[in-house]
Amino acid sequence: MPETDELVEEDKSDHNTITILPKNVLVVDDDPIQLKIAEDMLGRKGISCKTCKNAREVVAALENSEYDLVLTDVQMPDTDGFCLLRLLRNSDIGNFRTVPVAVMTARGDGNSGIYEKEGFAGCIHKPFNIHGLLAFLSTIVSRTQVSVSGDFDFSSLLENTDDYSHMLSLVVMESEKELEEMESADRITDRETMRKIIHRMMPVWEMLEKDNILRDFQRILHDSDSQNETVHEHAIQIMEWLKKLIEETKKELKKYENPHS
Question: How far apart are CA 18 and CA 129, in angstroms?
Answer without folding.
Answer: 14
